[in-house]
Task: structure prediction
Amino acid sequence: MALTGATSIKAIAESGDFTSFPSNYTFTNDPHNEADPDPEESIPIIDLSLLTSGSADQRSKIIHDLGEACQEWGVFMVINHGVPESLIGKMFDCCQQFFDLPEEEKKEFQGKHVLDPIRYGTSVDNFSNGKVVFWRDFIKFFVHPEFYSPNKPPNFSDISMEYSKGIHQVVRELLKGVSVSLGLEASYIDNAMNLESGFQLLAANLYPPCPKPELAMGIPSHTDHGLLTILIQNGVDGLQVLRKGKWVNVKPVPNSLVVNTGDHIEILSNGKYKSAVHRAVIKSEVARMSLALANGPSLDTVVTPAIELVDEENSAGYVGMKYKEYLELLYSKLSGQSCLDHVRVSSNLK
Result:
């Protein structure tokens, strides 16, 4: 069949009409494709309850572990986070109902700009100048400081609002621990990044079964904008993080949240904590769905290294840029290049 970027991947996968795998879905130019897998590594686990209500010794240890996870991994799992498992299940149900809508109804939510508050689409990407279409359908919408949501299915808005509020609270608690782990006041990141008006973007990603998963890609290797991205998946693995030149499969423990450190944690920490390089691979027999909630500063915040982390021995490794401008640059001008390269002072940091 003729395949185009305007056709959802879900519709293509369900058609089953493949005489040969189309070249525009073949992805081979990931700069990290040659990285070997490392199945033995396991992702750090952070118990949020110890951070929020543990003893002084427990809190001190979990803050140390959190800092180590940010520095050595850039990804970790959070348990005892307080977001009800039933609510997470309802979120997945709503997203599945959305992706099951007729094509014409989903296309009502197509957007054209990165700062459109609701955007549905298939993955013509900004990594390869539109030459490759990734094996993913998505719906993205802003949930903070202003809340938007598709009006289909009928309960999508209420459930996604409740979910995003719960995640927002988890993020603010985690960032208190990250602040202390950097030697800053617990409220430093919250205040400096104006998290009361912080930008939250919820993305539901559907990766249908693919007849040639070794040729296609869900999302290629990249880093996330913002501070922390909270991710959950529907029990089907597919997230991989790059660690010491090897791809590590992220296999969350039950009822945990996966957290990626983003570009603006790297900037704020003056490079001590690195933005995690990760990707999404796909399966041949089963659909994978993930919910990613990106949590950033307010759109008008200019993000620079914390002044307390800059001195004669550690000069500022990044120039300041307003978060909104960073997002626009990321989605409109780049092609496979990290946006961090545009704010990094190359003479200071590699």
